[in-house]
Amino acid sequence: MPEFVITRNEKNPVTTGRVATWAAEQLAQALSMTATDALVIRLATPDEVPAADLAPVPESYAVLRADGEIIVVGNDETGLRCGLLELADRVAVGADVAGTTPFAEQPAVPVRGVVRSFSSVDEDLSWFHDKQFWTDYLTWLAASRFNRFHLALGMQYNYGADRHGATDNYLCLAYPFLFDVDGYDVRAEGVGADEQKRNLETLRFIAAESKRRGLKFQLGLWNHAYDYGRDSVHRYPITGIGPDNHAAYCKAGIAKLLAECPDIDGLTFRVHYEGGIADHQHEIFWRAVFEGANSAGRPLEIDMHAKGVDQALLDAVDLPNLSAVLSAKYWAEHVGLPYHQASIRAKEAAKPIPPGHEMKGITEFSRRFTRYGYGDFLREDRTVDLMFRVWPGTQKLLAWGDPAIAAGYGRLSTFGGSRGVDLCEPLFFKGRKGSGEPGARDPYVRDDLRLPGNREWTKYRYGYLLWGRLLYNPDAEPETWRRHLRSTYGEAATAVEDALSPLSRILPLVTVVHGVGGSNNGYWPEVYLNLPISSRVHSDHYAGDTDPPANWGGVSPFDPTTFYGVDEYVAALAAGELKAKYTPLEVASWIEQLVDDGQQALERAQQSADQSDPQVRRVLIDLEILVRMGRFFAGKFRAAVDYSIYRATGDAGSLESALRIYQAARDAYAEIPVIVDGVYQRDLRFGIEASEHGHWADRVPDMDTDLAALTEELQEAASTQSAAALPPAPAPRPATPGVNHTVPESFVRGEPVTLSLEVVDPAVVGATLHYRHVDQSESWQQVPMELSGQTLSGTIDGDYTASTYPLMYFFSVLHRDGGQALHPGLAADLSNQPYVVLGSATVSG
């Protein structure tokens, strides 16, 4: 029998707490499954082991060896959890922990959360009540080093924005599905006392099991509407409630909920109109709800979805037991590259509130710039914390795994002093808006690929692991995830990693550059609903969330400061005024390289993998899809540029090139339905709008319509007069910027700040400094830099620095041949921040 002992100071509340006890049990279980020499493992805190020298950061830990013991030292229970589960993970793959070399880690990101949405009574009730599911799922989140779990209720509907109101409203206004509230005769029709009791007991279980694993439990109550209006036919009509008692009932309901569920650490609310409460005088309703939460008498985090938040709401939440935090979207409702938008689309600028639009006036008009980013919430003197949420628009279904991007999020999720990030997990919103079907949560239809028993999430273990471990430590050793890959994919582990990494980078890049729709309802790049290139084909679907004309050429990137749109690029090319921004052709070449790298690794994986294993088959199929998606998007960018050149010049050769490249892109996309035939559901339902459901096969006819229009244009163009010529091709982007920059420690508010570049390449002849406050409602400013010897300098004046916002800046660098570069720009792995953020110094005296 294995011989091991796990010891601890029984009088130390950290080493004897429920989280440390649970983690120690996991290590003991792992040790019991393997032969090992006699082993003593001791749990301790830094005061008991001064030599540990832990950083004074919550959740830090160290593993030491002393006097024949392995000592796991944590400055809190979650730190101990990290150390104990690290050892358990090593034991599980056969490592000899008796020979462990001492090591230590500390978290880079304070909040590392996962969000799971209850979106469909038909598809989600099964996992909601499945205790084995929760045991396995929450354990994996803990092992992956997440420290927060957010169960979102009512997130699947957007009051006032969904064209058809609501049907499946189970748990949307959560209180009547959980209990009766004294003094109110409010009911969810069809939900009896036994069902209420079962739901409440399940919620208690989820909260308690989350806490036992060191995961703060956040309950999201995203909707407080009791009637969604329009043509809603509610499956569970809410009765006994109306405008006169709505706020009072919800105040009493939240108070009872917190009393019944003592393990709730915080509550997330959508406080703009889509959460069921009109923007106009919203603070009245929310003050009542916040007072109900405050009456619980214990500290609670109140996470307010940042969209539409104003000072009235911040004043309303200012209560003794409540700690407010704003949660902003990272890249609109999508997954983008790890950095934060250098600027938002012009479409998101603030606007006057028109008469009659009071319900959504703050969110859609006066503070519209808060919809899809951090807005103006990152002042250095802010009184409310901010964190980010990564929404599920880009990729909902396919396997994902890129250590570079995950590590980038680990470095940049604390942008501007923010607290961290919530990640909306795979299959998020499956069955949304009444589109669910009983038993249809698993998207596979092929028997050998299905994951019965609420195990759909296990396909994505690698993705959870990368996000959690690299948010905790973006410099973690690759062995952190490679041992999981080896245990899952065997001899193909290296090839699977090498294929998933570049191919997983494609859709986040496409999202950033092709900002055709900020909402996840209307834009799903993974199963792309075609946006036409031809000006003769109109897109009703995309017209609502992109500027006209709704075709590829006119689409703004989600970051129009760093990337060119297609028509914008061609216009600059024609005018001879090209800037240093990245062009659509560069993006196409990046995607092509990612596809080439991924394709080569995929071929190696196919040769070495055990394809009798279902998980191997699942990931190989998804990799095949991603290869085709990459070829499609790269071709579409190139074809759109050629078409825009044709539109600008009348050059039929450019139109012919556009047609040829687009046809190849379409053909690559059309291979996907063949690959997935009989594999995935024929109608993948994440909602009822055109971009929320369907199949790759459904998208091809629209591409053919677009191609037919281009063919017609080409036939007409062949008989026209000769075309105008574009200016000569500009100089290519330099291989390196040719400059070095030392970032100052800080700036002094109200004093000028001079920023300098050291010229290290004699080809550099000039540069421009671009700067703004860390405030997305503002525009970028520019100042030409002056060259003196080998130094380029530019100054931001004191009037501009007299602000409570940090500064952000970057440089565009001009070379003698006309080529331009961005500095710092994007690195080869696209996972860094292409600008600098600079905070102010404390001014003494």
Counted by DSSP, the helix tally is: 21
> What is the strand tally?
24
Class of secondary structure makeup: alpha/beta
> What percent of residues are in strands?
15-25%
Low-confidence sequence ranges: none
**Strand order across the largest sheet:** 6-7-9-11-12-13-14-15
Cα(first) to Cα(last) distance is 69 Å
Tertiary shape: globular
Explain what the structure shows.
The protein has 845 residues and is α/β, with parallel strands linked by helices. Helices cover 34% and strands 15% of the residues. The chain has 21 helices and 24 strands. The protein has an 8-stranded parallel barrel with strand order 6-7-9-11-12-13-14-15, surrounded by 4 helices. A 5-stranded mixed sheet has the order 1-2-4-3-5, covered by helices on one side. Strands 18, 19, 22, 23 and 24 form a 5-stranded antiparallel sheet that branches. β14, α11 (403-412) and β15 (420-424) form a beta-alpha-beta unit. α14 (493-504) runs antiparallel to α17 and α16 (566-575) runs parallel beside α18 (614-649). The termini are far apart. The model has no long low-confidence stretch (mean pLDDT 95).
